Amino acid sequence: QKEVEQNSGPLSVPEGAIASLNCTYSDRVSQSFFWYRQYSGKSPELIMSIYSNGDKEDGRFTAQLNKASQYVSLLIRDSQPSDSATYLCAVTPGGSDKLIFGTGTRLQVFP
Amino acid sequence: GAGVSQSPSNKVTEKGKDVELRCDPISGHTALYWYRQSLGQGLEFLIYFQGNSAPDKSGLPSDRFSAERTGGSVSTLTIQRTQQEDSAVYLCASSPGMAQETQYFGPGTRLLVL
């Protein structure tokens, strides 16, 4: 089992819809959770970080964390074509100072 | 302020040659990370430096890979006797110092081994 798993996609949604991106992780004592966005040919940039159970909202983005289910998700409301990118889930395992990344989910928002 | 910078941006080398990749972290950041991203893949952790502590080298794929960080700032990743499977984008990131803090990525070095 991979440490951080994501569906590779592509996930295709129409402009204005909600895009839902999911991630599961294997280390039960993981502490920190991040969503990065990566445009083709570019380096990752942080979208959201979340550390405790529940929802965290920032503009059109909402991160959801459920530690009991070892599940973290990212919701993008009012999706725009400019949101089309690969979204990487990253987790800091317990007792570690490094990030473990999933392979990413490619999101396509069509007009 | 300036972000993380990496050089060169692109590197083409022949199989068997050694290469050095450089990373300049954000000023004041004590943590520095190296990752590798192969085409269409996620990021693979290579090595982590935190202040004056011994680096976490657990992600280095073989003894051909090494890295150092001089003066707690600039870092160099060295790949000896390069192989074609080393072709990838090598990304450097830095953070203020705690693992829970955001990592800021540089633009990467695209390495192609012929």
Please report the total strand number of chain A as a whole number: 11
Average pLDDT of chain A? 92
Taking all Cα atoms into account, the compactness measure Rg of chain B is 13 Å
β-sheet strand percentage of chain B:
over 45%
Alpha-carbon distance between the termini of chain A?
37 Å
The biggest sheet of chain B, with number of strands, parallel, antiparallel or mixed sense and barrel status, is:
6 strands, mixed
Low-pLDDT sequence parts of chain B: none
Number of helices of chain B: 0
> In angstroms, what is the radius of gyration of chain A?
13 Å
What is the share of helical residues of chain B?
under 10%
Binned, the helix content of chain A reads: under 10%
Please count the helical segments of chain A.
0
Low-confidence stretches of chain A: none
SSE sequence of chain A, one letter per element = EEEEEEEEEEE
Strand content of chain A: over 45%
Sequence-ordered SSE layout with sheet pairings:
The complex is a heterodimer of chains A (111) and B (114).
Chain A: E1 4-5, E2 11-14, E3 19-25, E4 32-38, E5 45-50, E6 54-58, E7 61-66, E8 71-76, E9 85-92, E10 100-101, E11 105-110
Parallel strand pairs in A: 2-11
Antiparallel strand pairs in A: 1-3, 3-8, 4-5, 4-9, 6-7, 7-8, 9-10, 9-11
Chain B: E1 5-7, E2 10-13, E3 19-24, E4 31-37, E5 43-50, E6 65-69, E7 75-79, E8 88-95, E9 104-105, E10 109-113
Parallel strand pairs in B: 2-10
Antiparallel strand pairs in B: 1-3, 3-7, 4-5, 4-8, 6-7, 8-9, 8-10
